[in-house]
Design goal:
heterodimer, A: alpha+beta, Alpha-Beta Plaits, 2 domains, five-stranded antiparallel beta sheet, four-stranded antiparallel beta sheet, 9 strands, elongated, B: alpha/beta, Rossmann fold, six-stranded parallel beta sheet, 22 helices, globular
Chain lengths: 161, 562
């Protein structure tokens, strides 16, 4: 079966050790977390954790079953096949030189990226998009004098409940 | 009225009908033990915390209640970890109460501080660190609920010392469970109807039952089911006793040291009705060759056990009891034509396998361990509660003590914990003072919790220990013999203590037999002595457990004897 990246949404009770339980289930049961993002939901006592993980369909079903067994887990949903909207964000610090400055600014303009901070010789860009958009942006910026970056996990929401 | 945390704890235990705990005191739980001093609840004072958790586990298996264990922080807590993992693997409901340093000290490497909720997260069903006294009552009730509901398991509650001392107004205590509602029970009717169709079409059906039938208290339904359908049945190590071994439908245990006929039946059946099993690798051996001709119908309360390794054709994520009740009702219905004609040839074939290679061993001048177990079976009329350690002793007990009664065999099935059997026997004897309780042990594993002799003697518990003393870590030696060119690397423990003197030193009774003809008299004497008795049987040192399926081989690939 095909191995691909899966996006899993987990609703949990917002308790201090719940993230450790989720992470422990992944590592202890032989799954890997590719990316993770977590924050409270409309109900602040409930947190949504979105995790991406590599595996085939069978692996993901096994994982869902194991996650569902955690007492503080309220719901597990595989969003990969749910036609969900998925986005990530990356903040990139660029070294600005006379050679790259114009091209960077043109690209920011064309692709509707954002400039978060601007100094004489550095700037911080914000790029939001799907996984491929971010991958492409980073590949481009790497060639353009990228200094460092921080990338979030995937956030995702279903089109319909 | 104001209550201390320690008082709230005991009120909560009382609400859960916990009348017995297994514990060992220490600094962080002094306030709890001080309150215990004034309470009616019975504490069995063990000599090592591992003894406490195994005893609570054995108590739970025999009584059907939740076992309770109470230990201090740090080393007291870590000493229970093996026993917690043991209960987790075998799905045994226990609640472990651990002391913790005061909340203000947590995280600062205080004396006897350890992050026990962190350590036990992967081997508990759930655990709690009590942060506020307001939560204590509710948490204890939730812990018991979690431990015994669904697929049972161990739950740990870590209680900081200041919480046990602080005060709360009794009206302010919350006893109400606040757990997510996981009772999304789907109807089993449709699946059961499909199951019945599969049964109707099968020509070579076989039942494999496991620990889930015992945990779900479905042994009566299982017995009815097998008799109504007239199908052969095999039970896993964890499931022994759910179906009577003396019944002709019974094929013994499957798997690595299972019977020839159970393994042959699995390998040739066309329908495997799996009830409350999780298909451990010691049962399936090579997965590709497991039940290769069968459709698999799997009933288990834990959805994560379904399709984990063995692919099912139909699965029912449910307790076995309601499923069997419904199936039995439908099968008893006159309109259900039992597939007797089509299964006739199959039953004859199974009978041939039984006759071809029954469980057997060769007698000799030296004591054969199988003979000890068989004689024990005969003398106790199969009515004893048997616990085991792990290794050869465990397998011989499973093979040669023919379990007819549920909850009479307690063994460390999943984790394989040497040192489990004796403290578990103590817990079993506490739960059932009216029963003969025997730990079948090896000379290696009995030494792993031998200190509990003091506990047994202290509480006048007439537990019998039968040591099959071969001077080896026998199962390790057997593997070394078969797979490592007889290089007995560190499996020879010839320098074992004099178990008779050791028993006497603890105030127990010690008996010894070195020749076959002494076995029966020694067992009789031991069983007739109403005290803790250690019986040391010097058995054939290099006897092996057979049949044996080599690890990773197909179940049909059995070595029947040496």
């Amino acid at each position: 079966m095909e191995v691909k990246e899966n996006t899993i949404s987990i609703l949990v009770n917002n308790r201090p050790d719940v993230l450790a339980r989720i992470a422990g289930t992944f590592s202890g049961r032989g799954f890997n977390i590719e990316s993770i993002s977590a924050n409270i939901t409309r109900n602040p006592e409930i947190t949504r954790i979105v995790i991406t993980t590599l595996g085939n369909r069978e692996t993901v079903i096994k994982l869902e079953k194991q996650l569902t067994k955690i007492i503080d887990v309220l719901e597990v949903k595989d969003l990969t096949r749910a036609n969900a909207a998925c986005r990530e964000m990356v903040l990139v610090r660029m070294k600005l030189t006379d050679a790259n400055q114009v091209k960077i600014m043109q690209t920011v303009d064309t692709l509707k990226w954002k400039i978060v901070k601007m100094d004489v010789d550095t700037c911080i860009l914000e790029v939001t998009g799907g996984k491929k958009d971010i991958d492409d942006a980073l590949a481009f910026l790497d060639k353009m004098g990228m200094d460092d970056f921080t990338r979030t996990g995937v956030v995702a929401v279903e089109r319909q409940k | 009225m104001k209550l201390t945390g320690a008082q709230v704890l005991f009120e909560a235990l009382q609400k859960e009908n916990a009348d017995t705990i297994f514990g060992f005191p220490g600094g962080a739980v002094l306030d709890i033990f001080d309150e215990l001093y004034r309470r009616k609840i019975r504490n069995i004072l063990v000599r090592h915390e591992q003894g406490a958790i195994h005893a609570a586990d054995g108590y739970a298996r025999v009584s059907g209640k939740v076992g309770v264990c109470l230990v201090t922080s740090g080393p007291g807590a870590t000493n229970t970890v093996t026993g917690i993992a043991n209960a987790f693997m075998d799905s045994i409901p226990v609640v472990v109460l651990t002391g913790q340093v005061a909340t203000s000290l947590i995280g600062g490497d205080a004396f006897q501080e350890v992050d026990i909720t962190g350590i036990t997260r992967p081997c508990t069903k759930h655990n709690f660190l009590v942060r506020r006294i307001d939560d204590l009552g509710r948490i204890v009730r939730e812990a018991f609920h979690i431990a015994r509901s669904g697929r049972p398991g161990p739950v740990l509650i870590d209680i900081p010392k200041d919480i046990t001392k602080s005060l709360i107004e009794d009206n302010d205590i919350s006893w109400t469970l606040s757990l997510p509602n996981n009772n999304k029970k789907a109807s089993i009717e449709d699946a059961c109807a499909k199951a019945l169709d599969m049964i109707r079409q099968a020509e070579r059906p076989l039942v494999i039952s496991g620990g889930g039938v015992l945990l779900g208290r479905a042994w009566d339904e299982l017995r009815t089911f097998v008799k109504l359908l007239n199908v052969p049945i095999t039970s896993t190590l964890m499931g022994l006793g759910a179906f009577p071994a003396s019944d002709p439908h019974w094929l013994g245990m499957p798997g690595m040291h299972g019977t020839y006929y159970a393994n042959m039946a699995i390998s040739n059946c066309d329908l495997l009705i799996a009830l409350g099993v999780r298909f451990d690798d010691r049962v399936t051996s090579k997965l590709d060759a497991f039940a290769p001709h069968a459709k698999v119908l799997h009933v288990d309360i834990d959805p994560a056990s379904i399709d984990k390794f063995v692919k099912t054709h139909l699965s029912i994520a449910s307790d076995c009891k309601p499923v069997l009740q419904l199936l039995n009702k439908w099968i008893s219905d006159k309109s259900f034509a039992r597939p007797e004609k089509q299964t006739k040839a199959w039953l004859e074939q199974v009978q041939k396998w039984k006759e071809f290679a029954p469980l057997t061993y060769c007698q000799s001048d030296k004591i054969k361990p199988q003979y000890v177990v068989e004689t024990l079976y005969r003398l106790t009329e199969g009515k004893a509660i048997i616990s085991t350690e792990v290794g050869q002793n465990q397998m011989w007990a499973a093979q040669y003590y023919h379990f007819d009664y549920p909850n009479s065999f307690i063994t460390s099935g999943g984790l394989g914990t040497m040192g489990y059997g004796f403290p578990a026997a103590i817990g079993a004897q506490v739960a059932r003072p009216d029963k003969v309780v025997v730990d079948i042990a090896g000379d290696g594993s009995i030494q792993m919790n031998i200190q509990e002799l003091a506990t047994a003697v202290n509480y006048d518990l007439p537990v019998k220990i039968v040591i099959l003393n071969n001077g080896f870590l026998g199962m390790v030696r057997q593997w070394q013999e078969l797979f490592y060119g007889k290089r007995y690397s560190h499996s020879n423990i010839d320098n074992v203590p004099d178990f008779v003197k050791l028993a006497e030193a603890y105030g127990a009774v010690g008996l010894r037999a070195t020749r076959s003809e002494e076995v029966e008299a020694t067992l009789r004497k031991g069983l007739d002595t109403p005290k803790t008795v250690v019986m040391d049987f010097h058995v054939e040192p290099e006897e092996g457990v057979y049949p044996m399926v080599s690890p990773g081989a197909a179940l049909t690939d059995m070595v029947l004897s040496k």
